[in-house]
Write a structure and sequence with these properties.
The protein is built from three helices and seven strands; from the N terminus they run E-H-H-E-E-E-E-H-E-E. The protein is an alpha/beta fold and 158 residues long. The chain has two domains: 3-77, Transcription elongation factor, GreA/GreB, N-terminal domain (Helix Hairpins); 80-157, Roll (Chitinase A, domain 3), CATH 3.10.50. The strands form two sheets. A five-stranded mixed beta sheet has the order 5-4-3-7-6. Strand 6 (140-145) and strand 7 form a beta hairpin. Helix 1 packs antiparallel against helix 2 (49-74). The longest helix is centred in the N-terminal third of the chain and has 30 residues, at 11-40. It is elongated. The two termini are 20 Å apart.
Length: 158
């Protein structure tokens, strides 16, 4: 759902990213500088693997900061009231039943930037997320996933 190059996030996720970014820019950068200074103190920089590793880590750290700033610059807040009731959409909490083994799964459909499978947050761009979008209570869906064809029934939408 990155039309117009926007990134759709919840207000809560924007606040989390802003807090993490602030922490990284203050304490994180300070810690990186300390690591580099400590490694530099170990002697000849041309043969100092610890210094090279610290500089590489710093580069990756700065890249992460840059990516987070980019996400925030393109972020748009999602307003759930814009969506039709009774249909699965981004920010829907969906309870589904796997029709092959009768297991029940609970998912929150989110933007790719918020996805966290361990927390039950799946991206609307994932195969399952795409397959669930715009379905209604009681619908049975077949989803073509890397693991094969998955069959689910929508048993609850919040």
């Amino acid at each position: 759902m990155a039309d117009g190059n926007f990134v759709y996030l919840t207000r809560e996720r924007i606040v989390e990213i802003e807090k993490e970014l602030k922490e990284m820019k203050t304490n994180g950068r300070k810690e990186m500088a300390e690591k580099i200074a400590e490694a530099r103190a170990h002697g000849d920089l041309s043969e100092n693997a610890e210094y090279d590793a610290a500089k590489e880590e710093q580069g990756l750290f700065e890249l992460k900061i840059s990516k987070m700033e980019d996400v925030l610059s393109r972020a748009r807040v999602i307003d759930p009231s814009q969506f039709e009731n009774g249909k699965v959409h981004i920010l829907s909490k969906v309870k589904i039943k796997n029709l092959k083994n009768n297991k029940i799964f609970n998912y929150l459909l989110v933007s790719p930037e918020e996805a966290d499978f361990q927390a039950g947050k799946i991206s609307i761009t994932s195969p399952v997320g795409k397959g669930l979008l715009n379905t209604q209570l009681g619908d049975k869906v077949k989803i073509n996933a890397p693991a094969g064809i998955l069959e689910y029934e929508i048993i609850e939408i919040n």
